From TrEMBL:
The keyword Cytoplasm applies. The chain holds residues 112 to 408 of 627 of the full protein. It is found in: Cytoplasm. GO terms for molecular function: GTP binding; GTPase activity; translation initiation factor activity. This is Translation initiation factor IF-2. Keywords: Cytoplasm, GTP-binding, Initiation factor, Nucleotide-binding, Protein biosynthesis. Belongs to the TRAFAC class translation factor GTPase superfamily. Classic translation factor GTPase family. IF-2 subfamily. It comes from Mesoplasma corruscae.
Amino acid sequence: LDLTVEDKPEDLVMRNPIVTIMGHVDHGKTTLLDSIKNTNVVAGEAGGITQAIGAYRIKTEDGRRITFIDTPGHEAFSEMRARGANVTDIVILIVAADDGVMPQTEEAIDHAKLANVPIVVFVNKCDKPGADPERVKSELMKYGLLAEEYGGDIPFVLGSAKAKTGLKELQDTLLFIAEMQDYKANPNKLASGVVLEAHLDKAKGPVASILVKDGTLEIKDMIVAGTTYGNIKLIENEHAKKVLKAGPSKPVVIYGLNEVPSAGDKFIVINDEKTARSIAEAQAEKKLNAERQKNNS
Ligand code: GDP
């Protein structure tokens, strides 16, 4: 489903880069996300991030923002990509300096290459006695990831998620890439984006965490997300605060869908209930047929 309309250049404005951390289990994804989260509480949000919604925004020292996807795991990531939902702009490949390249490191490299997005390598656990960041650099050469000092174009940041070193350099690197890539979106149109996670709340009904990729989502919008649809009754941000709208690169929680969508589903605003329902039904039919075909083969 694609209702893309060409944007006029004057409608496009800068948006935050969207970043995903990938790497082998235990190499420090969770620790890195936590360290970044805790050192960059968005101003005016003294309580910090109060609800896990699959993604969150941080404010860097110079006031710019970065949207981090709370790593959904490689499986969910490839699922999203398979369905054409390119959620991320940049991949941080985290590799533990005392362990080096491991099977899921390779997987992460494949994902990033297929998604065709810039990679930043964060060589983690450099605080450990057995750390050998140079070995990580030479191992990654075999995968075509050549460090800048070796004439390549892959930024390598050495640090420790636990000791909170290298984090500033990592953020600066992300912001530099964002500047070069010039990520833009048009906030003056109906929203579109992707579902990050969803579940059924006993009291509130279907709850979906979504990432707005383009346009602006507004309360009362009628959206279609995969095979589900509905009027948005409530929008909340990662601080569990009610908001009336959400622009590009913003992750929010929405309430009001008729059913629970799947992670990786794309969503669009269709401000007409009949059309929304028929698109959702058509997509449900398509999904059913695809499943039948899969079962028959
Ligand atoms: P994940 O599986 O990739 O999310 O890895 P975790 O963030 O859960 O980290 C796995 C283990 O490595 C935990 O015990 C962390 O405390 C530890 N760890 C993560 N980063 C560092 C680091 O920079 N230095 C040290 N020494 N330990 C770390």
